[in-house]
Design brief:
Strand order of the largest sheet of chain B: 6-7-8-3-9-10
Number of strands of chain B: 10
Helix content of chain B: 25-40%
Shape of chain B: globular
Strand order of the largest sheet of chain A: 2-3-1-4
Structural class of chain B: alpha/beta
Distance between the termini of chain A: 36 Å
Distance between the termini of chain B: 30 Å
Radius of gyration of chain A: 35 Å
Largest interface: A-B, 35 and 30 residues
Number of strands of chain A: 4
Oligomer: heterodimer
Strand content of chain B: 25-35%
Number of helices of chain A: 12
Order of helices and strands of chain A: HHHHEHEHHEHEHHHH
Shape of chain A: rod-shaped
Number of domains of chain A: 2
Radius of gyration of chain B: 17 Å
Order of helices and strands of chain B: EEEHEEHEHHHEHEHEE
Largest sheet of chain A: 4 strands, antiparallel
Chain lengths: 345, 225
Amino acid sequence: MSEQFKNRHRNRQQRINSSAHNHGDGHEAREQRARATSNNRVSAYLIRHLQVFFFSLGQLCKAPFSSLMTAAVIGIALALPAGFYLLLQNVQQMGGTLDDTAQISLFLQKGVSASGAEHLRTQIAAMPAVSTVDLISPDAALQEFQQYAGFNRALKLLNENPLPSVLVVHPSAAHSVPALVESLMVELSTMKEVDIARLDMQWIRRLNALLDISHRGVLILAILLAASVPLLVGNTIRLAIQSHHAEIVVNKLIGATDAFIRRPYLYSGMLYGLLGGSIAWLLISASFWLLSGPMQRLSLLYDSAFILQGLGFVSSLQLLLVAGLLGWLGSWLAVGRHLRAIEPS
Amino acid sequence: MIQFDNVGKRYPGGYEALGRVSFHLAEAEMAFLTGHSGAGKTTLMKLIALIERASNGQVIVNGKNLSGIRRRGIPYFRRDIGIIFQNHQLLYDRTVFDNVSLPLVIAGHHHHEIARRVRAALDKVGLLGKEKLYPVTLSGGEQQRVGIARAVVHKPPLLLADEPTGNLDPELSQEIMALFRQFNQVGVAVLIASHDHALIARMGCRVLTLEQGALTIDSRARLTQ
């Protein structure tokens, strides 16, 4: 970026020097231009850019209501995909914590004794793919059932405990990949003491598949809505160019280059983008603040320490950067199309 | 400074605005361009400022053959010409200072130098002290002088003026013409398009007369009333 700027500046300097050389004898203006040090030029150039920046800012502030309207539309267009993306990331993070909880429930044969079940528990716990195994005895299971209202009386009608012993197998971290967990389940289900083996992973797979689809959807939405930003800014800038038709003609007659005339519009476009990005940031932050309370209550109900993640510093910066760039791009497209059409006549 | 060799201008549709015009304006020379409206005065001015391009013939301005200047080069070419318009062409949302400083800003001068030169130019046209005003608050004659200050602030070797006194009363016109004469005396070539014959006669400069797109009279007429 700075290299490009230097090159451009060098080219300009050369042009000015050579034009001064060709026919500049005796003209103070050109002599001074040629004499001007490179440093002076660069600082004049930078000051000029600063002036244009503040001029463009001033233009936006002159019509605060319409500027804000445009920026708000940009803000909403950016807040939607960015907000969805953030939400998805949160869901994914939640899914990640759920992945670890993949567990295999082994319902043992009715005839297996308590000591037999304990023996099987230590045997399975020793397997390399297994991290821990919990034993739920028929009595413990019965107690758990009795806690549920309504079951109490139903269970009293039974003469004996109908529940089997259950082993809850937690795969080790290295083996918690869906495919490996499944093969572990198949292996365990072939044991003669095991009646039924159940793997509660299907829903996690479905969630992951759904997340993949949502990711695509958000990506498409993001592209569509982000594309609307340059179009919006482009249209606004087009109107600005039309209302400054006379001024552009005068500038061209006085010897302004296209770059000179383009500059304030590019800055305006960038400012629209930045303002829109700021509004998007505010919208997202406010939405997540509103969501965080209910979300915390929900995660408490699930005994989870899940916290809704808002926009971090880096993401906020990225949002603003993208917004500014999209605004600049829209302005660049509009200016390129319309400035060329305006010529003195 | 300006050289026309058999220059013709035909607009799309076949209308011939200029046909085979040849003349030469020397450096530091002052001349008037006259003729009825529709005679081609404005077209000739436009060819010099590269607002239009000649259909045939050769135009050389300031040592440059205009047919060799591409679109990208036009701004740099125009910086060596000061153009003055009948309707001033000022920017009405900017102060007098900002209007006059525009050519220097465009050329990328340092702001200290810009302030110095703008004040010098405003001093020359007698508007020093009005740099903070907006053009609408000025009279027609003053607005035209702002336009002149803007045209000369970057010290171009050539001044073009298209009907600069068209909207002014004779007294103000005389003042404006005296200004042009002053610039001419310090070495600036001046070409003024005007149909104010009385005024032209009083100035006693070279007169180029256009009739239906042809240069019919080129004289150093020194008429006195």
